[in-house]
Specification:
The chain is mainly α. It has a two-stranded antiparallel ribbon with strand order 1-2.
């Protein structure tokens, strides 16, 4: 939702209760919903459905590039684009696993 707000895009947010398996039931996962393992979040944009928060964020940032602040470097500037991809890879591979573990302990721990 943060990227949608930044890009000034109207959206409908559907909150679901993961603890009750709601992400596996209709209407969240319809025949059009082809996310493996009932993953959330899912973006539905017309006939386009995307899961994985990073892919959703990049899709929105690119589709609405002319709105709000630029969130991605231009692929035309290869050096800036490569640095962005490098940082995104570091965040996913080296940071997210550890941060998610800490967050999980804080939220679900004793």
């Amino acid at each position: 939702a943060m990227v949608l707000k930044e890009k000034q895009v109207l959206y409908k947010l559907i909150q679901i209760d993961l603890s009750k398996g709601r992400h596996f039931t209709k209407p969240i996962c319809t025949s059009r919903c082809s996310t493996p393992f009932g993953q959330v979040p899912v973006l539905s944009d017309g006939l386009t459905q995307i899961f994985e928060s990073r892919a959703i964020s990049r899709y929105i940032a690119q589709k609405y590039a002319a709105r709000g602040a630029p969130l991605l470097p231009s692929p035309k500037d290869l050096q800036k684009w490569a640095r962005f991809e490098q940082a995104a890879s570091i965040e996913q591979a080296d940071f997210d696993e550890h941060a998610s573990g800490i967050a999980g302990e804080l939220v679900f721990g004793p």
